[in-house]
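WARN no homologs supplied; continuing
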Amino acid sequence: MTIVIAHVNVTRGYRGGERQTELLVRGLLDSGIRQVLVARRDEPLAGRLSGSGIATRNVSGNPLSVAMATGDVDLIHVHEGRSIYGAYLRSLMTATPYIATRRVDNPIGTHWLAHRAYRGAARVAAVAPQIADIVRGYDPSIRVEVIHSSSSGLAVDDARADAIRRAHRGSFFVGHVGALDNQQKGQEFIIQVARELRDSHPDIHFLLVGGGADEAMLRKSAAGLDNLNFTGFVENVGDYLAALDLFILPSRREGIGSILLDAMEQGLPIVASRVGGVPEIVHEGENGILIDPERPDQLKAAILRLREAPDLRDELGERGRRIARNFTADVMCRKYLGLYEAVLGGNG
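OK structure emitted
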């Protein structure tokens, strides 16, 4: 009998968690498992998986809609926090087991329903040991396993990457890729550093790749800067990464920051905040420089240090490329397959 697994992700938009969901679903296409996707209607994830052979069930996003859409499956895999309540409700109705992937390092809700929903999960998969520690601290009875996020295996068109570099003046190209969500990603600090370096280091150019709710605010904050550009949302992220000299991620909080793995695949040195699971993949002095969150002075110093040290940049980038080989989608898929088998085999 074929096992049926429902992947549930009802988040609006398309960010790192949705990319990881897509990578897993695509990676399991030849596994012999039948998959269905439960997604919020009219959001990008379902559209990106259309034509892949995965059945999609569009829902409103509330817990009852998730519960009703998962009545005929063997296992529910929740990929974001809000849907765990729908999976818990379905488990009360039909005893369907569920697992939940925890991608963020912010606290879990302290209300009784959150405790019951997380305690009821057959397993919680944390994307980094630091996230697993948060879950264990929340409730030691929760069964937690670490399954890291993966790199995306982004395609690169060399001609397009060269065109991106030529389109922006400056010989040292510093970039950031991520949703424009300032309270998480801290893009205001990039703008602050760009403003401070505009006159003293005109050869440094900054690029913010991505769109999001804070785009208008951040563009206004960057008004008048000719050493910083916004791209808005783009599909060819790999081309932009390949055009860069340095990747920066000055986040206030992160689960693991899977975009860092994509940057490392391109051989880029990293400057990133020491938050969440980031130190799991960015090792100080090995493949990048770690800074404290909300410290634009440290961000600026790290950028200037690496600008003056091309040999160090090459060394950090090459070590990062080697580290990224341990975080591929194939590795992630094998680990989730093992987890599914353990849960459905009665060892969950």
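The two ends are 20 Å apart (CA to CA).
OK
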